[in-house]
Amino acid sequence: MPGKPVFLFIASLMLALLLSSCTIQTPAQTTPAFPTATATSAQQPAQSANITPAPALPRTLTVCLGQEPNTLYPFGTLNTAARSVLGAFYDGPIDTFTNGYQPVILDKIPSLQNGDAQLAAVSVKSGEAVFDSRGNLAVLDVGVTVYPSGCTDDACAVRYDGRSDLKMDQLVVTFHLLPKLTWSDGQPLTAADSVFAFKLASDAATPGTKFMIDRTQSYEQVDDLTTQWWGLPGFIDATYADNFWSPLPKHLWEKVPAVDLALGDYTLHPPLGWGPYIFKEWSSGQYIHLVKNPLYFRAAEGLPVFDSLTFLFMKDAASGISSLISGQCDLLDTSLRLDGELDLLTDLQRSDQVKLVTSTTPLIERLDFGIRPASYDDGYAPGAGDRQDMFGDVRTRQGIAYCLDRARLVSTLLSGISQVPDTFISPQHPLFSKDAAKYPFDVNKGVALLEEAGWVDADNNPATPRTASAVKDVVAGTPLLLDYWTTSALQRRQVSETLSASLRQCGVGINLKYYSQDEFYAPGPDGPLFGRNFGLAEYAIGIAGTEPPCGWFATDEIPTKDNKWLGVNISGYSNPDYDILCHKAQRLRPGSPEHLSAYTELQTIFANDLPSVPLYMRIKAAATRRDMCNFTLDAFTVNDLWNLEELDYSPTCGG
Amino acid sequence: MATEAEKKQQIADLDVFRPGRSLGQEAWYRLIRNKAAVAGMFIIAFFVFLALFASLIAPQNPLKINDGKRFLPPPFYTTGSTNTKPEAKFLLGTDSLGRDVLSRVIYGSRVSMVVGFIPTTIILVMGTVIGMVAGYVGGRWDNVLMRITDVIYAFPDLLFFIIVMVALRDSFIGQLMNGLILLFAALAIVNWVGVARLVRGQVLSIKEKEYIEAARCIGVKDVRIMTRHILPNSLGPLIVSAAFSIPGLIITEAILGYLGIGLRPATDPSAAFITSWGAMMLDGQSAINAQPFLLLSPAICVALIVMAFTFLGDGLRDALDPRMRGTQ
Fold first, then answer.
1. Chain centre to alpha carbon of residue A357
2. pTM
């Protein structure tokens, strides 16, 4: 029967297809199955074991991420997982830590002390781009006020007349690359690659912020190993040591249009770096596999320790922890957001099953007072629907601060790992001032200040909100019932409910209002935060780099209709003394006594006026197998796997 | 001597000519013989009791944060997943802030009960009036009212609830009773259409009956005919419909609470509506490892109350269906 073999063939084919479809690939199953070049070459000598001793088996490090990288193009809008993965290709070039910068592929960090950074007095002419005395980009023209060379405050600022010879300070920073660096394809890595990266970053088609590019006059190659950054006249960048553009492979990407690179197609333009690992494979939704870079500049030190590296994508923290305990993961990255699982991880660490690593971050969770809502911009008119001026009196703000049990947040919600900051600067920061006013939880002090401000307990019932008796600009009888706006994230709900309970002890009533992130952070005038339409608002804000952000509370940072609602001073707080001091501090040389003194004074003003109550330092958490060595977290590192090449596990690290 | 067959006939005749019971008595008699419906009634009565006397029954203040007592397991566990020891006074353990889960579950029943009963009342009133007018008056009125009904019926319910809750939560109505009034309104606006269609169908059928014709002939006014003759004869299906709609509303509230757009959590311990089962499930899903009862307790309660109303609805349908009359 001629049809029978055909039928059998089709039936066999169908069966084979059916069976193959039954094999669901999971990251767990795929991990050991990588047929890498290293693995193959290592297996060959093992077959002749009777002649030579078998070499050690190839070692793989498996890092589990909480998300899949959104791109591997360094200038893309990177999520946390993408930063972790890219750190394996591009080592450094400069690592940022709480105590400063560390060079990775540079021979040293430039500074004014070692001469690699210099302030030069340069002549400026009409039509040139400069930085004006308000700290804004400007084209020098008649009437523009600038700081001439050597001047750091408004007392010596000059208004340009268009004729006089004017000299301004210009910062010039020189960066020296380490010699003999190579890309992983063997091509030499030179200063030209860094300048190429700068040009690519400057291209309008390249995504990402142009903040520093707008403030750069030029970035040039001096020789094969040296680049030089020239800032705009008047722009004294406190983080100048970081103004080195991370090199990109000019020899591969020079002829590719920026718009094509921006698409982030890793199959056309795979990431190529100088770091410890080389890109091998990306299985969408499952893993990214990398292998050791034999040309890594620290290869002579035996680095990286592992022959291959696999990034597995986990769906949530719980599955990550399960995978860590089962041995499928060696390390759970901070992108897994383990801060909600601290209790469980602490317990697992106690039972010697995992190692929990935590650190604070530069992100400060804070509670801002809506001192001046946007509706006051055309004048305060409570009769016309404006919210009553509940926070105009500083004693009300201070009283409320005393009634916030922030220590309880840290002890209960953050397992005691974080800290309560007193000012807008992290307590670990060298510029943090210990002398600024403090507001520990104290119901008596809080009540006394509220009474002083005119909020009285008219019904002698502490459980009900106080009412206004003689509060300035508040109608008598108005209850001290505040709207508390925040996002609906679990931790924020817990924080808001805990703080509501402590505020109630002082007779401050709270209406909780939870919003999705998109709604809460929507631009003004519609968004409650940037539209300045809230009573109390809890959110987090952080800094990039190490310069403290005094501008958070500067008047020119108030989002208004005039500045298209762009600004971060959402409380509407305004103090001319603070503004002057902040502008001055931003121009002073970092590390100088004047710089320190300016920030100390700024923190004193902040803590007295209290436009915002810092609640706690946000934390980041990672977990590793119990015998992992050399893994640490630092508050300021952008990439938490900054020393990926040094990670190892061994019984000696088990303690 | 009567034969065996004659005796059986006499007994059957006795059944037929037994003393008459009212329609309500007949229905009640059949309902209480339905074991599932009776179980449902007991469960509903239990939750109504919990809701009414929550402040007396709850062993703890549901808002009280107990320091150092996060995620305590229930006493029937020796240790929790984070090695915490149970305490006898927290019968279902504690939540992420150390609050008593049992007390919160008890208080949560209030929201489910009012969401089950109050919007249902509004739905019944709205649906009955519109359905009756459309069915009885007919013509252009029927056409207009039924097209409006069709439009609302076509709109996806949950999407509508979400839009209403998000858009109006900062309005005056959105602030009332922590957003509960807005929730009632949102639920009622969408759900009356089913009742309206049901009533219209009933009216169209009943208004052709002889007794309605007779009433018209003797000059009874339309309003009286609708209220005294048509409405009482439509009550059976209406009651069944109400019993089936209540669990749907409870589930919708739980879903909205779970999505974080339901009832706003209260911060005042004297407030009537402090939390809802949906909101508790939202908290519980992120702590499923640390304290499973935070999720399980409200989930079981929602399941129980929904099941109870479904059983009762089934029982009422069987009891009130006219085709069942005269049967045991």
1. 18
2. 0.78
